[in-house]
Amino acid sequence: MTDRGSLRSTLHQRGMRMTPQRQLVLDAVRELEHATPEQVCKRVQGTAATVNITTVYRALDLLEELGLVRHTHLGHGAPTYSVEEHEHVHLVCHRCDDIDEVPTELLGDLADRLDAARGFALDATHLALSGVCRKCREANPHVEERR
Amino acid sequence: MTDRGSLRSTLHQRGMRMTPQRQLVLDAVRELEHATPEQVCKRVQGTAATVNITTVYRALDLLEELGLVRHTHLGHGAPTYSVEEHEHVHLVCHRCDDIDEVPTELLGDLADRLDAARGFALDATHLALSGVCRKCREANPHVEERR
DNA sequence: GTACTTGCAAATCTTTTGCAGACTC
DNA sequence: GAGTCTGCAAAAGATTTGCAAGTAC
């Protein structure tokens, strides 16, 4: 149900439409990756200057409900949105705020272990792992400051 | 430098003091575990009603700078504070918002693998892992909704 | 015409900042 | 008396809500 046609009909069943604003928001999320609502709004306004941030929030909610985008908490406040297919684990450096991505396979059997230990179904892509990135470690090897 | 005496002298070196408000905030964090600034404030006000939320924020910042407390992003907005020694990985259920904790050892060699793959120094306690807890899975086994 | 969408303004919530008075040494 | 600490009020930033006007079918 990810292709354009079925998206339209999914919306239609609910009496909703794929409006230009919603399409622009979806496009912006696709293009930007890891964008905050604010950033998405800026991007959309590059094409259609009058689109309101309120509309962006509402569109993001709707698109998330439809399973087209998802949001990830990268720490320090702002959630970021990306398209649903964009599946990997995020690594956030809390020194420079850089975001790196690694395939979920790198987690190995962590999900299984959490399931076994606590019955917890891990959703690895929803949250980021925090730490210090290579660049920052090389720049300043001793501090392991946290934010 | 975690005991009361050296804390006092650390503060003193900076021309600062361990005021009743700061002590109350520290106590509240100790008692509550995973408390938001809001919750800490409520707790403190139970003892000293006039303490302002501003003071709580400032005390939390200071205590964090001193390495006595740390904050963790558990997703959906609010950071929560806990005492520094409180070291484990948090599992947040995004259905019921329940927080579970597992020893960091359960991550196995994840930290090593991230280091090897990306030179990333994982700080496992800073962020939570997100997913669905046992209770919610049993209550409603099919949905794997995200928040 | 009805129902959905949008933009705008205002409300809300969280966190930060400026400042004057109180307190400590 | 100098410098720190606090409470209050206001500012700032992010997100949500109410509502009237616009639009699609």
UniProtKB/TrEMBL annotation, chains A, B:
Zn(2+) binds at residues 93, 96, 133, 136. The keyword Zinc applies. Its cofactor is Zn(2+). It comes from the Bacteria. Binds 1 zinc ion per subunit. Keywords: DNA-binding, Metal-binding, Repressor, Transcription, Transcription regulation, Zinc. CDD domains: Fur_like. One of its GO terms (molecular function) is transcription cis-regulatory region binding. One of its GO terms (biological process) is regulation of secondary metabolite biosynthetic process. PANTHER family: FERRIC UPTAKE REGULATION PROTEIN (PTHR33202:SF7), ZINC UPTAKE REGULATION PROTEIN (PTHR33202). Belongs to the Fur family. This is Ferric uptake regulator, FUR family.
